[in-house]
Amino acid sequence: MGEAKRRGTPEERAAQARAKVEALRPAQLVCGHCKTAFKQFDTLNVPGLPGIDAVFGGECPSCGNDVVVFKGAPEAVAQAMIAWEKMLGADAQLGYQSSDGRHVPFEPEGSAAETAGAVPGKPGGTLH
User: Fold this and answer.
1) Are 98 and 104 in contact (CB under 8 A)?
2) What does the buried/exposed string (b/e) look like for 32-59 if buried means 16 or more CB atoms within 10 Å of the residue's CB?
3) Domain boundaries defined on the chain
4) Could you tell me if 87 and 81 are in contact, meaning their C-beta atoms sit under 8 angstroms apart?
5) What is the DSSP code string of 16-30?
């Protein structure tokens, strides 16, 4: 019997995958531009991103900016954030959402905030 069959029917495996993603869903997203917290957002289907377990996104109800959250391995999240910034250009407001729901801005490599207690070689604002 194959590994997939041991984990259940295709429908059961799909339900397990949805439950795993839903467990990663944050209670709210926080806009990096205007700092508005909002609870109406979607789970984004982005297959094929190694190390990324889930992606959530929505439009800020206050300013209309797109807000995207990557959940996964810290290095994969850092790479996804940098790719997102390159795609959006100057309009990107990179950062991470703290455990208390605040938006914490991304600090570029070599900035004072990064060098004060950060992990060398890792982008600031991506690791908790």
Assistant:
1) yes
2) bbeebbeeebeeeeeeebeebebbbebb
3) 26-115
4) no
5) HHHHHHHHH--S-EE
For the stretch 1-5, contacts whose Cβ atoms lie closer than 8 Å and that sit 24 or more positions apart, written own/partner, are none
pTM here? 0.71
Name, in order, each residue with C-beta under 8 angstroms of 21's C-beta and a sequence gap of 6 or more. 43, 53, 54
Q: How many CB atoms lie within 10 A of CB 64?
A: 10
Extract the tokens encoding 128.
Answer: 């908790």
Q: What is the pLDDT of residues 85-117, one digit of tens each?
A: 888 776 677 777 777 777 787 665 544 444 344
Q: Are 96 and 67 in contact (CB under 8 A)?
A: no
Nearest to 19 by CA among 43, 48, 47, 38: 43
The CA distance from 114 to 107, in Å, is 6
